[in-house]
Amino acid sequence: MTAETAVSNDSHQARARVFISYSRRDIAFVDRLEAALKARNFEPLVDRTEIYAFEDWWKRIEALIARADTIVFLTGASSVYLDWGTPRQRAVAEMTAAEAEAHIADGQFAAGSMGPKITAAVRFLAEGGQQCIITSSRHLAAALAGTHGTRIVPTAGRMPAPRRTASGQ
Fold this sequence. Notes:
Elements: E1 17-21, H1 27-39, E2 43-45, H2 57-67, E3 70-74, E4 80-82, E5 90-92, E6 94-96, H3 97-105, H4 115-126, E7 131-135, H5 140-144, E8 150-153
Parallel strand pairs: 1-2, 1-3, 3-7, 6-8
Antiparallel strand pairs: 4-5, 7-8
Helix pairs in contact: 3-4
């Protein structure tokens, strides 16, 4: 798959600000993805700065997230799974923030794995984000088209908090 095929050209998505969380091993893909997103009138938000010892790097990431409508987490897994590692393991195509919170409370997501991503997605949606997509770089095109990966969306009827600005206000 190329980065160009990973990007939808739907006009209703034009000008969306997309924060991309990625593994440093996927940097070459992220470079191509960023160029493809820009070519299609998206505003990709990618942190390219190295993290140094004792640096408060999270503030830099939060500033980018505060500007985004959508977060994409590129992971080693193609989707979020419930009952991971058991015979009942199953992929989740879509869940609401409330469902994600319930799964967190049930211990479905390990702290060193999907847990932080799901928690970040719930927080992002509570602060006015529109969606979070979790998938692998290999399946990103299908995830953006809604046919693969996991999409976490706001819970119907819940009013999101006002969006923070990049300065945190």
